[in-house]
Each structure stands twice: as C-alpha cells, then as structure tokens.
Amino acid sequence: MNKYLNAKEYDIFSTILHSEEPLNVAQIIERHPNMTANIVQPSIRKLMKLKLVEVADITLEGNIFSRRFKPTASASDIIQKMFVDDYLHFSKLVSSQSLFSAMVQADSNPDKALQDIQEMEQLLQEYKGKKNAKKE
C-alpha cells in the first residue's frame, strides 16, 4: 500500500536518519552488505526527490570524490505526511481501534508500547482540550 518507499529505500533512509554523521553510498553498503551500489544509488535519488535526504558535503577519499547524505530538516514532516496518507487509506479498510491496536502490538518491547500508549493518551487529551475550547 505504501506508494512512497519500498523496504530497501526505507532501510536506506532509516540508516541515514539514525546515523550520527552523514553517510556516502559506500558507508551505506557497509551497513547493508546485501545491497549494492546499483540498489543504493537509485534509492538515494528517490529519497532526494522526495526531499527526505540531501547532500551534506562532498568528501575526497583517496582520489575519489563522494557525496555524503543527511536527512533534510523537513524529513520528519514529510514522513508524518506519508504516514497520514497511508493511515487514511487503511482507515477505510479497518477500524481506528484495530489500527491503534496494531501499532501497539507491533512493538515487541512492552515498556516502549506502554510509553507509546501514554503519549497517545496525552495527544488525545490535548485534542479534546482544543475541541472543548473551540466550543466555548
């Protein structure tokens, strides 16, 4: 259903997003030995087109120049929009309760799942507060 990223593109984006420093194609391949430059380079182009990553700098390693990539400042907003788009499609197929249940069950760490539930409860309370303030 995800019209934005396939599994490999998601893995590459996640690797760049969670890296402490910008990464070049060779460094991404080091972290994903099952991938080749023929997989990573088109994926990077797509991530750039979606404005999820950008060129951080150009480095010289030996006598080869390489671009290093980092997430864009707007990457978080773009990912959130992708999630909302997918949520809207899935919400036509299954109930909201089922979607929230699946989100919680997807996390194998019970403490993290509990933290997610508490954050959702807080968001719901804030939303209810805003709705009540508009009515008054």
Molecular structure report:
- The protein is of the alpha+beta class.
- It has 2 domains: 7-71, Winged helix-like DNA-binding domain superfamily/Winged helix DNA-binding domain (Arc Repressor Mutant, subunit A, Orthogonal Bundle), CATH 1.10.10; 94-135, no CATH class.
- The chain is 62% helix and 12% strand.
- It is built from 6 helices and 2 strands.
- It has helices spanning 7-17, 25-31, 37-49, 75-91, 96-105, 110-135; strands at 53-61, 64-71.
- Strands 1-2 form a two-stranded antiparallel ribbon.
- A hairpin with a 2-residue loop joins strand 1 and strand 2 (64-71).
- Helix 1 packs across helix 3.
- The protein is elongated, with a radius of gyration of 19 Å.
- The N and C termini lie far apart (40 Å).
- The model has no long low-confidence stretch (mean pLDDT 89).
Low-confidence stretches: none
Q: Count of helices?
A: 6
In N-to-C order, the SSE pattern is HHHEEHHH
Strand order across the biggest sheet?
1-2
Q: Compute the gyration radius: what is it?
A: 19 Å
CATH topology of the largest domain: Arc Repressor Mutant, subunit A
Q: Tally the structural domains.
A: 2
CATH superfamily of the largest domain: Winged helix-like DNA-binding domain superfamily/Winged helix DNA-binding domain
N- to C-terminal distance: 40 Å
Instruction: Kindly state the percentage of residues in helix.
Output: 55-70%
